[in-house]
Amino acid sequence: MSAPLVTVKNLKKTFPVRESVFRRATRELRAVDDVSFAVSRGETLGLVGESGCGKSTLARCVARLTEPSDGSILFDGQEIARLSTRELRPMRRNIQLVFQDPMSSLNPRKRVGTILREALSIQGLVSGRARQDARIAELLEQVGLSPTFAGRLPRELSGGQRQRIGIARALALEPRLIVADEPVSALDVSVQAQILNLLKDLQEQLGLTMLFISHDLGVVRHVSDRVGVMYLGKLVELAPADAFYEAPLHPYSRALLASVPLPDPAARGRAVRPIEGDMPSPIYPPAGCRFHTRCPIAQEICSRTEPPLTDHGNGRLAACHFASPFASARETERAAPQPSQAKMGD
Ligand code: SF4
């Protein structure tokens, strides 16, 4: 097996927090707390979790748009966590972001052709007007748009067309890793599937590696080879997508899957149950397992001892003292007695 393209080890990102405007920062918000994972070449890793769980901060750290506080990020074997802005410049094109709101990331005064030409000119990737025009037409066709779109302004495009331009601009730099942060959450449901299919097709055609961030488990299922679940800055489960959706190991993953309607015909009739309780503040995370204040199977040890992310075989990792098929069945029995709910997330 080839070495991973991205390896994240013990990554941390904290933000200082002032408790009042008159005081200096006295607390820390631990947005990403000791997270480790790897992404193989050509793989799509989906990262999910509720709003505020740290997934977007983690994505920004990997893309080096945010400086990590601690830990390591290896990109193709090279440590990039501590590179300066100048040192990062030559390798920036390898990691490109697709943002949630393409309108805010596209200059409204520039035509699509100019936006793409600027991307191509970076690091002298394609020089000469004629060669750039040909590449712009090729990029537009690659994202399913006619080359005539080069003459349009962003405001003359629909949301889906703008996101296609955002993707074309990312592709212009011939990246090896795409970090897509909620790329379809601002789009109408009818357009979401088109953009997801486009990302999936491009990933296959170009052999791209992708880190895909979303709060929407249905969206993540559509594109991901593996799924990572974050809760209060921690990675609590990591698993191949099929296994994850069939039978997640972590109680939070199960609660997350049970809280949303999934589009699968097999899931029809499954009751949707919101996750109980509110997510605690990341400034004052609970001791022990961070999910213990909301977990339906918490035991005394859970509030005392933090469970490590443990290997459960077949590429499955979970951070829970009771993560096992036995615990999974027991909880399912207790929390979802109706037969239609027994096969969670399927
Ligand atoms: Fe629930 Fe305990 Fe597992 Fe945490 S460690 S998820 S509280 S059972």
Could you explain how this protein is built, in words?
It is a single chain. This protein has eleven helices and twelve strands. It has 346 residues and is an alpha/beta fold. The chain has a single domain, classed as 3-Layer(aba) Sandwich (Rossmann fold), CATH 3.40.50. The strands form two sheets. An eight-stranded mixed beta sheet has the order 6-7-8-3-9-10-12-11, with helices on both faces. A four-stranded antiparallel beta sheet has the order 2-1-4-5. Strand 7, helix 7 and strand 8 form a beta-alpha-beta unit. Helix 6 packs parallel to helix 7. The chain is globular and about 70 Å long. The relative contact order is 0.13. The C terminus is likely disordered. The chain binds iron/sulfur cluster. Iron/sulfur cluster binds next to loops.
Gist?
The protein is of the alpha/beta class and 346 residues long.
Give the ordered list of helices and strands: EEEHEEHEHHHHEHEHEEHHEEH
Shape: globular
- The span between the termini is 30 Å
List the strand order in the largest sheet: 6-7-8-3-9-10-12-11
The level 1 CATH classification is Alpha Beta
Total number of helices: 11
What's the count of strands?
12
Computed CA radius of gyration, to the nearest angstrom: 21 Å
